[in-house]
Amino acid sequence: PGLLGPRALYRLLCRDGMDVRNRRILVTGGGFDFWLAAAIAHCCGAQVSLVLSEGGWQSEVSTAIDLGWQFNSGLELVSSRYNKRGLRLAFAPVRGDQDHPASYVELGCDLAVVARRGKPVYDLLYQLGADLVHQPELGGYLPAGTRRGHFATELDSGLELEVLGEAAGALPAELLASPTEVTPA
């Protein structure tokens, strides 16, 4: 109870109007959904705490601190448990992080959001007849021959199919990188 993904949080707060005023919401993980979940929770009146498991995001970290959000970094979620007092999450230093001692940190909250990399959208590709193979480096099941961020093929039905972006395993940061000059074919 109380442990969910960012897209479930969006539905509960934005679509369903769940009241989280003065509730303690902890957001853990990284990426765009991490920051968006924290911002939406804050706008809805929650007391936001963050546990960022990846580097970067200096501007966002500064804003989080300016907003008074409790902030931790260099930790990854290892366990959670729920009791009468609420949700308790245990964190350990990210593997290979030499700046943090090898000890656990336990944090309490009313609701926790785990923001990890989303899986590529393969359901429609499968339904259209694409042969899928597990490609963990791209985040999940994708058609054979997928390059990070792009897949194109002609299906048996004659339909030409092209998949781009996160749906083809690109990381959000890659999509926002400065575009390289493209020479028309």
Chart the SSEs and their pairings.
Blueprint: E1 3-4, H1 6-15, E2 24-29, H2 32-43, E3 47-52, H3 58-66, E4 70-73, E5 75-83, E6 86-93, E7 105-109, E8 111-115, H4 123-127, E9 132-135, E10 140-143, E11 150-154, E12 160-164, H5 172-176
Parallel strand pairs: 1-8, 2-3, 2-8, 3-4
Antiparallel strand pairs: 5-6, 6-7, 9-10, 11-12
Helix pairs in contact: 1-2
Spatial shape:
elongated
Q: Using the CA coordinates, give the radius of gyration.
A: 19 Å
Q: Whole-Å distance between the termini?
A: 53 Å
Instruction: Give the DSSP E fraction (strand runs of 2 or more residues).
Output: 25-35%
Q: Order of strands in the sheet with the most strands?
A: 1-8-2-3-4
Structural class determined from secondary elements: alpha/beta
Taken in chain order, the helices and strands follow as: EHEHEHEEEEEHEEEEH
User: Sheet with the most strands?
Assistant: 5 strands, parallel
Mean pLDDT, to the nearest integer, reads: 85
Compute the number of strand runs.
12
Q: What is the helical fraction, as a range of percent? A: 10-25%
Q: How many H/I helices?
A: 5
Which residues sit in consecutive blocks of at least 5 with pLDDT less than 50?
A: 181-185
What does this structure look like?
Strand 5 and strand 6 form a beta hairpin. The protein contains five helices and twelve strands. The termini are far apart. The strands form four sheets. The chain has a five-stranded parallel beta sheet. 25% of the residues are buried. The C terminus is likely disordered. The protein has 185 residues and is an alpha/beta fold.
